[in-house]
Design brief:
heterodimer, A: 440 residues, mainly beta, Rossmann fold, Neuraminidase, 32 strands, 47% strand, globular, disordered N terminus, B: 179 residues, alpha+beta, 60s Ribosomal Protein L30, Chain: A, 6 helices
Chain lengths: 440, 179
């Protein structure tokens, strides 16, 4: 069996973990599976044993792993009460115990307290049908990092069993709007992908919009209306420091980072009042105009190679998606032809598919478009679905929808089989943006 | 460390959040509602509009948003996905144009809005087109460019919440905010 050493210290998002104090003040999100795969894979995640001071582990590592894998919609972790035995060491595993309850895979493990605030987690994944170990890992973490470490274990198990990198350790940014007395508060929030650990990164009585991650996951660009004008800010998540990068007359909107992080594509209207796409080099503030059309051009997104951008334009009447090279004077090519309304595209990590807002018989829904053929496949089932964003593994899309007149988030697998609702406990939430993979 | 991060972020934002120039949603809602009422008055009350049209020179003595004349209206409404100004708003915008022309110190911010249908940033574009259509008309009426500023809130500050035609109609608007 392979044993790898994975260090969880000093990780990018580790700084978020210690402030769960804040969580109680703002609405936490809760994931509910609305439709999973027809036969999720049965598995058993045995509660990890605890070796340390105190009666129990300071964090329920195996509980979070089971919750993660269950929430993915692809696996059905069995109830602990139905387990015949609770092994934590490889020599204690009896495959018959698990074959009899018909689970396909088994995870066992231990949480060991090495010294004060230093823990080692050891776990093994088994193929029950074959009666063989698949893989085992060893991770070290501080107490504050145990949640991150647990998501990392979920990611490793998920990747081992599906061939796709897991996204349990990633983050989402979203906008929340909450009525507080006479005042409306707009908040930009970053949380774990499962909605846990929400952190307010910006809070304003004026609207906040359009969060976009930098490719290294360390910064967010967003639009703020403080001072009764639109401005684009780039905020460093770790420090909270932010810089206003555009506050020109008229619209300053729809910011997105280039894949190398050196440029921002954005929408400006300047004095003429007409939205066009521009490219801003962040180091020099040099602005390059990419589109020039009397119709609305907005909602740009870069292709992964950084050579071109997709954007929404109303130049054919209703909004449609166009592509243009990332240089001045290039000509735009129309990409979407199916339906009268296609807008706000986001591109898959592989660059082969676009997620768009597509009008489907009077409803706004999330659809996948093949940019080469224009072939369109509707994925969501709501009436006001918008703001799609791909998970960094390309297998899921998170988007905003409405439930009982309230803004909530939802996700759908790109094969259309798994639908999840991410329910907000308080306030309305919208404009989700899925982070890149955290840098280890 | 992390808590100081939050505090820092809040302090940074607190410095910028002290403006009261924008109408809270509740006021925006009542402004929109009174705008509708005034529109009804204009349609049913020929006396007030007749006075304004004949004695146009005394418009400057009125104050925007007060009274019952065309200058009292501070909101104009638009058709779905359109930014052309409806003919029923011409008289009101003419009054505001003349007011700005006669009062060089007056400054107005045109806040463009859209209904919730369609994507958010596209609606920002639509709100800006509406605000710019109003701005062009005010400039034609004699207002100067530095008196009139635009901002588009798209669908972010609805006058009325709800996914129905009444709310949509009240939300497709430009509000005139004098400073």
């Amino acid at each position: 069996m392979k044993i790898f050493q994975v260090l969880c210290s000093k990780r990018l998002f580790a700084c978020f973990i210690s402030v769960s104090l804040v969580s109680s003040a703002i609405g936490q999100l809760r994931v509910e599976i609305r439709r999973g795969v027809e036969r999720p894979v049965p598995m058993a995640i045995v509660p990890f044993s605890w070796e340390g001071l105190g009666a129990v582990s300071p964090f329920d590592v195996s509980g979070l792993v089971a919750a993660d894998l269950g929430q993915s919609g692809r696996f059905a972790p069995m109830d602990v009460r139905d387990m015949v035995s609770l092994p934590s060491l490889p020599e204690d595993v009896r495959f018959q115990d698990w074959q009899i309850v018909e689970v396909d895979y088994l995870v066992i493990g231990r949480v060991i307290e090495d010294t004060f605030d230093a823990y080692t987690i050891v776990f093994q994944l088994y193929d029950v049908l074959r009666g063989e170990p698949i893989v085992g890992y060893r991770l070290t973490a501080s107490g504050a990092e145990l949640r991150t470490a647990s998501h990392r274990i979920s990611d490793m198990v998920y990747e081992e069993l599906t061939g796709l990198p897991g996204v349990f350790g990633t983050s989402i940014a979203y906008v929340s709007e909450q009525q507080e007395g006479d005042e409306t508060r707009f908040r930009l929030i970053v949380s774990d992908a499962d909605g846990a650990n929400p952190i307010i990164v910006a809070d304003s009585p004026d609207p906040l919009m359009s969060p976009a991650w930098s490719p290294d996951g360390r910064r967010l660009a967003y639009v703020s209306f403080e001072g009764a004008q639109s401005s684009i800010y780039i905020q460093t998540l770790r420090t909270g420091a932010r810089e206003r990068v555009s506050a020109r007359a008229g619209i300053n909107g729809a910011p997105v980072f280039s894949p190398d992080g050196t440029h921002l594509a954005l929408t400006l209207s300047r004095d003429q009042g007409n939205s066009d796409i521009y490219m801003l080099e962040l180091a020099t503030q040099v602005l390059t105009r990419l589109t020039q059309h009397s119709a609305i051009d907005t909602e740009a997104v870069w292709t992964p190679d950084g050579e071109s951008l997709y954007f929404t334009s109303g130049r054919a009447g209703g909004p449609q998606i166009y592509q243009i090279a990332a240089r001045a004077g290039a000509r735009a090519q129309r990409v979407t032809f199916e339906g009268s309304y296609n807008a706000r595209s986001r591109i898959s990590p592989g660059g082969d598919r676009l997620a768009v807002v597509h009008e489907d018989r009077g409803n706004y829904r999330i659809a996948l478009v093949d940019p080469d053929t224009g072939l369109t496949q509707v994925l969501s089932t709501g009436q006001q679905d918008e703001s799609p964003s791909f998970a960094p593994n390309g297998a899921l899309i998170i988007y905003a929808t409405q439930e009982d007149g309230r803004g909530v988030l939802a996700s759908v697998s790109t094969d259309g089989r798994i639908h999840r609702q991410i329910v907000s406990v308080a306030g309305q939430v919208r404009e989700p943006a899925w982070s890149p993979f955290p840098r280890i | 460390m992390t808590r100081s991060l939050i505090v820092l972020a809040l302090v940074v934002l607190a410095g910028c959040s002290g403006n009261n120039a924008t109408l809270p949603d509740s006021e925006a809602g009542s402004a929109a509602a009174s705008g509708t009422n005034t529109a009804n008055n204009v349609a049913g009350g020929a006396t007030t509009t007749g006075m304004g049209a004949q004695g146009g020179l005394n418009v400057s003595r009125e104050t925007p948003g007060e009274g019952s004349g065309p200058l009292s209206r501070l909101v104009i409404y638009f058709d779905y996905d359109r930014s052309e100004i409806r003919s029923d708003s011409n008289e009101m915008l003419a009054a505001h144009g003349e007011y700005l022309s006669a009062n060089n110190d007056a400054q107005v911010r045109l806040e463009g809005h859209a209904d919730e249908r369609g994507t958010r940033e596209y609606n920002i574009g639509l709100g800006e087109q509406r605000a710019q259509a109003v701005r062009r008309l005010l400039l034609l009426q004699g207002a100067s460019a530095d008196q009139v500023r635009t901002v588009s809130y798209g669908e972010e500050r609805p006058a009325m919440s709800g996914s129905n035609d009444e709310a949509y109609g009240l939300n497709r608007r430009v509000e005139l905010v004098y400073r």
